[in-house]
Amino acid sequence: MAHLFPSELSLLAPPIMMSRYALLFPVLVLSACTAFPPPRTPAPVSAETAPPSGTYALLDALVRVPVSLSDEQRRADIARLENERAVTSRFRLALLLGRDDDPVAVERGIKLLSGLEGDSKSAQALIDLARAQLKSRLDALRHQARAEELQLRIEQIKALEKSLQQRDSSPATR
Question: pLDDT tens, 109-141?
């Protein structure tokens, strides 16, 4: 019962705390002296785990198609790539044609992609994905052309309606 009084506990606390810190200090000093393990180097990629080279070539061709090209640059790239028969060159040509605002060029790009066959499943998936993207672009271009045509018709109908209203509101002279 003698230890239940707080005044007695406060007298015992500093020696206990000192012994804890006395043990903690050497542990911290020793832990600072440990050597860190060398950085891990990635394991070499084996032929079984590496994606096929065709996929890398197509991805490389995809990356090399710049987003913003002037019309001259795009035409020059298309002219240069038209004579090449490599899969990557034809893939890149199809992507360049897909950037054009002309639906005929986009259709040509789709036909080029339809004729390509990847050397692996992932390369074929990339070609199929690019073909689907070009088809959606072609649909968007067709919808845009249709919307412009309908807008033009609406403006013609409004002009005709306005001329009919003006003719009806003017006094008839006979």
Answer: 999 888 888 777 888 888 888 899 999 999 999
Domain layout of the chain by residue ranges:
53-158
As given in the structure block, the two tokens for residue 101 are 């605002």
Kindly report the average pLDDT of the chain as a whole number.
76
The burial of 15, by beta-carbon neighbours within 10 Å (0-12 exposed, 13-18 middle, 19 or more buried), is given as exposed
Tokens matching residue 161: 């309606």
Question: Helix 87-98 vs helix 121-169: angle between axes, to the nearest 10 degrees?
Answer: 20
Tokens of 140: 């968007």
